């Protein structure tokens, strides 16, 4: 289909306008017309990746198959497009500078002063192109994180300005996302913030081709005309993006506003192919018209910021739709659960999910939640730390090892049933040193996990340091905890389950990272089913 076309998505006025969702929605529409599309995100912060950030700082850290710790927007890209992303899809200022400084130390710029322009901007441009090197995409969408006008995004905007000349004007377009706020006191929508934001882009030498205007209310034609006039864009390139009921409505909303058509015509690509989006519409239909409802508790310690569990909550949307069931997620702070109040805090739920996490805070509550679920036969899903909590609880209360613990927690114990592997013990640095990315797992036939996946060989994504301690395996299995999934190369335990329980499963991996709209994760689908069955029995 000829050479690759580049779409850049920038944002202005405020953050949190939803550049990631607009990018993913545009990607979906272009993909639905038969174009091969990928999306990448450039983040203007100095961390090499978000792996060392607290979830409160930046929401969840999304992990790709190749073990990259990335921005949560990559999760949206995968969930919308149903194609895997990789390290190359997320680049930060930190990584750009790291690469340039490493080259400088090697002597690659010998004799030259290394500067933001051209060395940093050249490295940014090299990374704009990186995804196209091994695969031939028709369209690469690049989201530039942060806001236009911020000091730290300047080199990225400058790189976009130069790149337009490198690849040619008909091969690149810029979509700028802005806010058109409604002033209640004046009873009016205001265009000035959009005008100012576009001016800032223009000062940096970048003329946006399309403006996507986020707004609480419809942006009428006369206002769009005004925006077009002041911002040098065609009237039909001022697109309104109203607040949506769910993020999954946005592709259809953008279709209605003809965002995809504008993009294709500006890139001189054929708009003839019809949008094939039936399966997406079917999903929306099921998602919006549930026939049942269950309530599932998400027990974690970052519950004040829902973005910290983004992939898990989205996986429930996919699994809910698959079951035609509304999943009401109740976020429960693990700090608030104790042995005394566990029954009153989580007693009436149809399922309990204990979330991934790090460190000691909240462990007591998570372990209590696992005990309650095991004893009361409530469907339980433990992800990563949630699996480790189920193991510790079982060791303490079933095997009678009352001091059983994870060596991650600073406590004295003779029984570290969750422990560091030898190769992890030697590691002293924090960035990118966990067990990260996709690993194979062999599933035992006849187990609940086997029933869910319907196969014995799977691959799932990991992000953790600690593991089940195989020294205890025989004792656990004898008492009824089945090690149902094992890593065939290392023999590490990847999944556990209880044989005498309706649905009690723990996974050392993160299944939520692989659930998409078109491919809801089987474990979430079965967990919701088990919750429905529990509800039926109450
Ligand atoms: N803190 C645990 C570990 O490092 C679990 C990590 C997680 O839940 N992602 O092994």
Tally of DSSP helical segments: 19
Our measurement of the CA-to-CA distance between the termini, rounded to an integer number of angstroms, reads 58 Å
Largest sheet: 9 strands, mixed
How large is the share of residues in beta strands? 15-25%
Ligand names:
glutamine
Instruction: Tell me roughly what share of residues is in helical segments.
Output: 25-40%
The helix-and-strand class reads: alpha/beta
**Looking across the biggest beta sheet, what order are the strands in?**
13-12-14-15-23-22-21-18-19
Task: Please give the structural blueprint.
Blueprint: E1 5-11, H1 19-32, E2 37-43, H2 55-58, E3 62-63, E4 69-70, H3 73-81, E5 90-92, H4 93-106, H5 116-134, E6 139-144, H6 154-167, E7 172-179, E8 182-183, E9 188-189, H7 192-203, E10 210-215, H8 221-231, E11 238-242, H9 250-256, H10 259-266, H11 278-288, E12 292-300, H12 310-322, E13 325-333, H13 342-346, E14 351-354, H14 363-376, E15 380-383, H15 385-397, E16 405-406, E17 416-420, H16 422-425, E18 435-443, H17 448-453, E19 457-464, E20 466-468, H18 473-478, E21 481-486, E22 493-498, E23 504-507, H19 522-537
Parallel strand pairs: 1-6, 1-7, 2-5, 2-6, 7-10, 10-11, 12-13, 12-14, 14-15, 15-23, 16-17
Antiparallel strand pairs: 3-4, 8-9, 17-20, 18-19, 18-21, 21-22, 22-23
Bound molecules: glutamine (GLN).
């Amino acid at each position: 289909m000829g050479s690759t076309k580049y779409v850049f998505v920038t944002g202005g006025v405020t953050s949190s306008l939803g550049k990631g969702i607009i990018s993913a929605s545009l990607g979906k529409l272009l993909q639905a017309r038969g174009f091969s599309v990928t999306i990448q995100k450039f983040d203007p912060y100095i961390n090499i990746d978000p792996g060392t950030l607290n979830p409160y700082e930046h929401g969840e850290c999304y992990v790709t198959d190749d073990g990259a710790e990335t921005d949560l927007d990559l999760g949206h890209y995968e969930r919308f497009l149903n194609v895997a992303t990789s390290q190359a899809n997320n680049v930060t200022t930190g990584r750009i500078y790291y690469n340039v400084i490493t080259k400088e130390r090697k002597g690659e710029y010998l004799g030259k002063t290394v500067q933001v322009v051209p060395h940093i901007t050249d490295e940014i441009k090299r990374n704009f192109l990186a995804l196209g090197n091994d695969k031939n995409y028709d369209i690469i969408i690049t989201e530039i994180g942060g806001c236009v006008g911020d000091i730290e995004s300047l080199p990225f905007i400058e790189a976009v300005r130069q790149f337009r000349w490198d690849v040619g004007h008909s091969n690149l377009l810029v979509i700028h996302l802005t806010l058109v706020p409604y002033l209640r006191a004046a009873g009016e929508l205001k265009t000035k913030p959009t005008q100012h934001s576009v001016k800032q882009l223009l000062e940096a030498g970048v003329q946006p081709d399309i403006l996507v205007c986020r707004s609480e209310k419809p942006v009428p034609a006369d206002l769009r005309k005004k925006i077009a006039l002041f911002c040098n864009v065609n009237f039909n390139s001022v697109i309104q993006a109203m607040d949506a009921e769910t993020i999954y409505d946005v592709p259809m909303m953008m279709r209605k506003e003809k965002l995809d058509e504008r993009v294709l015509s500006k890139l001189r690509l054929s708009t003839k192919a019809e949008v094939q989006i039936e399966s997406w519409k079917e999903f929306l239909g099921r998602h919006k018209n549930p026939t049942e409802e269950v309530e599932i508790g998400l027990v974690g310690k970052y519950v004040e910021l829902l973005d910290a569990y983004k992939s898990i909550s989205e996986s429930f949307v996919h699994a809910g739709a698959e079951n035609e069931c509304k999943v009401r997620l109740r976020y429960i702070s693990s700090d608030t659960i104790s042995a005394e109040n566990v029954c009153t805090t989580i007693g009436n739920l149809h399922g309990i999910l204990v979330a991934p996490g790090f460190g000691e805070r909240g462990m007591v509550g998570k372990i209590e939640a696992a005990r309650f679920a095991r004893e009361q036969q409530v469907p339980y899903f433990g992800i990563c730390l949630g699996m480790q909590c189920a193991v510790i609880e079982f060791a303490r209360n079933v095997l009678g090892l009352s001091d059983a613990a994870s060596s991650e927690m600073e406590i004295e114990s003779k029984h570290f049933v969750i422990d560091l592997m030898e190769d992890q013990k030697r590691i002293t640095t924090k960035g990118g040193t966990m067990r990260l990315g996709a690993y194979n797992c062999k599933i035992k036939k006849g187990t609940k996990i086997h029933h869910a996946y319907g196969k014995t060989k799977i691959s799932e994504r990991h992000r953790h340091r600690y593991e089940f301690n195989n020294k205890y395996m025989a004792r656990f299995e004898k008492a009824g905890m089945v090690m149902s999934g094992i890593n065939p190369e290392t023999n590490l335990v990847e999944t556990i389950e209880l044989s005498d329980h309706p649905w009690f499963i723990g996974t050392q991996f993160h299944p939520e990272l692989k659930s998409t709209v078109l491919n809801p994760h089987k474990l979430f689908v079965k967990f919701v089913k088990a919750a429905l069955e529990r509800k039926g029995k109450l």
